[in-house]
């Protein structure tokens, strides 16, 4: 707090001196910009406090949800011959756990513990948790063909591969752990152009009655280990934001003079690079393999909860196992605030009805939302574009990109600039 007060005093003194000095043509503009910066400094601190509170609570909820998933997986893999209903329950827990995790993606690219290996023992956690897209052939022919151990799964998360070294001959990633590896283990691949999730995996794929060396026993062990690994990484992130833990990252975050700039850059990169860039533009070619959660068809939930994560920070509120009402980013963005708020609303135009395993969880859709399954919608790209695809292509994706552009414009008011590095702006 002392640092913020000193900054405000310094800038105020500069303004007073400026009043006593002959003005250049742009002096009034410069003065107003400096005044806005001085006035916003205390509010930045309040926003960063709320940001830290939401980060801790969101990661706490994501961790608790993955603990529940791991417990369900432990029960499932402990059965010699699990049933189809058992498998559906695990799939539903995976879907539910994704809802809280996806909201944490807004914390990426901000030099925090999710993707800064300097803060997590030299190991970058995000590629071990949510790397995408993955080459399912790598899992089938490299991972499942060998001995399944927890450390080996981590070691074999090798990342990028060249077409000649990928088992499928494509350029997807050699991914062995994380959300999407677990997703593939649970659903398998779908039939091109179909309207259901992957169907090549059944409960029989996890039967352990034939001994530990069987393919089914390996798949069962793989599922459990991968879930345990995900749980351990989320615990690291939860602890990093825990203010009650001595020397945790959150204390450094709130004390750093660069945190606010890092946060703005991170949100812009997520909106204009990852979420509204690679993930959304990837499906414009009509390739269902480019769908973010192509095995489970959970993609509409992916995009909706990414938007929800940004909404949390924008309004300074969070609804989880604990409710947070604090200081949002909207209070700092001046004329850009309403513009960004409107585009967050547009980005949420997804009807969440992809719970194939438990239809009771599906929403009732209306015409302003994307109601069809995402893979079915993609299938219309190269023919007559469906109404849902048009909403996605011409309303939702441009709105997410505009959020990044608006943050680029806003940055100048805070004395820094955001270039196009890491952004895929159109």
From TrEMBL:
One of its GO terms (cellular component) is cell envelope. Coiled coil: none annotated. It holds the Pfam family Peptidase_M75. It is found in: Cell envelope. Keywords: Signal. Its main location: other. The keyword Lipoprotein does not apply. Residues 56-346 form the Imelysin-like domain. InterPro entries: Imelysin-like (IPR018976), Imelysin_sf (IPR038352). This is Imelysin. It comes from Leptospira soteropolitanensis.
């Amino acid at each position: 707090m002392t640092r913020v007060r000193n900054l405000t005093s310094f800038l105020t003194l500069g303004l007073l001196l400026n009043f006593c000095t002959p003005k250049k043509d742009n002096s009034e503009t410069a003065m107003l910009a400096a005044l806005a910066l001085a006035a916003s400094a205390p509010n930045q601190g309040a926003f960063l406090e709320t940001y830290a509170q939401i980060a801790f609570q969101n990661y706490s909820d994501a961790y608790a949800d993955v603990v529940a998933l791991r417990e369900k997986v432990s029960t499932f893999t402990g059965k010699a011959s699990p049933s189809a209903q058992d498998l559906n329950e695990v799939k539903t827990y995976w879907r539910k756990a994704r809802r809280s995790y996806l909201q944490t993606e807004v914390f990426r690219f901000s030099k925090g513990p999710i993707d800064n290996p300097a803060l997590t023992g030299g190991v970058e956690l995000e590629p071990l948790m949510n790397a995408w897209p993955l080459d399912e052939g790598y899992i089938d022919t490299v991972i499942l063909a060998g001995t399944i151990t927890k450390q080996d799964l981590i070691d074999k998360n090798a990342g990028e591969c060249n077409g000649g070294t990928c088992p499928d001959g494509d350029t997807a990633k050699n991914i062995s752990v994380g959300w999407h590896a677990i997703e593939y283990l649970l659903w398998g691949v779908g039939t091109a152009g179909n309207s259901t999730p992957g169907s090549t995996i059944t409960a029989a794929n996890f039967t352990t009655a034939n001994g530990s060396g069987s393919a089914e026993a390996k798949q069962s062990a793989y599922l459990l280990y991968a879930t345990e690994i995900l749980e351990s990484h989320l615990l690291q992130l939860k602890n990093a934001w825990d203010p009650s833990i001595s020397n945790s990252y959150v204390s450094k975050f709130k004390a750093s003079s660069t945190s606010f700039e890092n946060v703005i850059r991170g949100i812009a990169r997520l909106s204009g690079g990852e979420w509204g860039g690679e993930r959304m533009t990837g499906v414009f070619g009509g390739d269902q393999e480019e769908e973010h959660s192509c095995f489970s068809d959970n993609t509409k939930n992916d995009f909706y909860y990414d938007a929800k994560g940004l909404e949390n920070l924008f309004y300074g509120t969070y609804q989880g196992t604990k409710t947070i009402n604090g200081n949002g980013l909207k209070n700092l963005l001046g004329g850009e605030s309403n513009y960004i708020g409107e585009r967050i609303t547009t980005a949420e135009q997804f009807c969440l009805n992809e719970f194939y395993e438990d239809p009771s969880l599906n929403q009732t859709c209306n015409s302003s939302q994307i109601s069809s399954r995402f893979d079915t919608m993609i299938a219309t790209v190269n023919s007559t574009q469906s109404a849902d695809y048009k909403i996605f292509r011409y309303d939702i994706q441009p709105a997410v990109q505009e959020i990044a552009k608006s943050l680029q414009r806003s940055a100048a008011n805070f004395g820094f600039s955001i270039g196009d590095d890491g952004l895929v702006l159109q």
